[in-house]
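Sequence in, structure out. Go.
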Amino acid sequence: MLAAEKAVAVSQVVSQELSRQLIERMAAARRQSDAIFSLVRTGSLYERPIPERHRIIFYVGHLEAFDWNLLTNTILESTSGHAELDRLFAFGIDPVGGGLPTDLPSDWPSLDAVRDYVAGVRGAVDQHLETMISEAHPPARNDFTLPALLNVAIEHRLMHAETLAYMLHQLPLDRKVKQFDAPYLASRPVLHRGVALPAGRVTMGLDRNSEKFGWDNEYEAHTVEVPAFEIDRYKVTNQQYLEFVAAGGYETRAYWNDEDWAWKTAQGISHPLFWKKEDHGWLWRAMFDEVPLPLDWPVYVSHAEASAYSRWAGKSLPTEAEWQCAAYGHTGEDARPYSTGSEAPDSRLNGKVGNFDFERWDPVPVNAYPESQSAMGVHDMFGNGWEWTSTVFGPFPGFKAFPFYRGYSADFFDGQHFVMKGGSARTAACMLRSTFRNWFQAHYQYVYAGFRCVSR
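Output:
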């Protein structure tokens, strides 16, 4: 065998092995999404827990429709036999935009029809993938390989597993099958203080020549100069935010910009969505219960509310680059590939250095994991709640939209969305990489997102 032919053969074997590993990961992701749907009592699958989003039944069909549409638009030449359902379940809704949906439960197919569609598409996808791997599949069009497309399918599904969790968080308790979080040890008192970081350079984004997977908005790698600043050691807690509420923060115009004040006033918002006022005090609306407000848990709020708090505190939200620096260190000797060190935050580290990867339904105290300290001395920077930044979501230099999913990021470069970093208890470990970027509009309260403040 010639050297060139041998190299091609080795490359095919490696690609086949990687593809099989990814198919195993896809199976695990399917189990995760199936499990979240199993929490909903059958009679409630046509509910709409969040007014701005689709009914739950849409997502039952959407995950398989996405996989099918992704593969048929790139490397397969096949049809599912259900073109109408392929289209119906193709696209979600951008929260807080375009008005509220007005469809009725009767507008959707029956549950049996949707489940038959899911089973049929899932079986067809698996059969096609097995054939392609066994026959040493050709490259995908647009030079995207099967492993890259499988990564897209896997992470898309895992993102929706988190989206579905916070959607179901808003579903009445009696419409869910109750689950239990494992107990955790009570934390020490939270000592709130800042961490001073010197000026330096920080690396943002992913090298396009890297073998690691990333979404289109994660490219291209570049360095940013970050002036000296001070950042909160921990996320802002419910206790700290309660002080803001008690001080009249929601009634003080000076803490809110024009758009945020108009939104808050129109919607009659006077406290975080996850809080519930009772005669005897505040409750926290957990996934399967209502409990006395845990003062040492991170507060979950919209970007508008986080910004108002930061103004009240005489501080501001960090930029994406500042957050990156606090989590991963300056470019050079003190930089770490992961916030807590050189080891990837997979399931083996969950519960040791953070609260992530679907192990819990609700937050834990912000200082529950002393080993979560970053290279710069900042704690709890991945898991336990996404963190808002002041950075408007936009492209990095050299951005190129995925040819097979052009709207994934580019449709949201509209100046209305803000970058979030870190992750929540329901964020998959694979998306805790340093380059991953999440984003939402400023008035979206439902996501598991907190924040910390900076001084400059």
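Check: Residues 194-455 form a domain with the paralog of FGE (formylglycine-generating enzyme) fold (CATH 3.90.1580.10). The chain has two domains: 3-175, 194-455.
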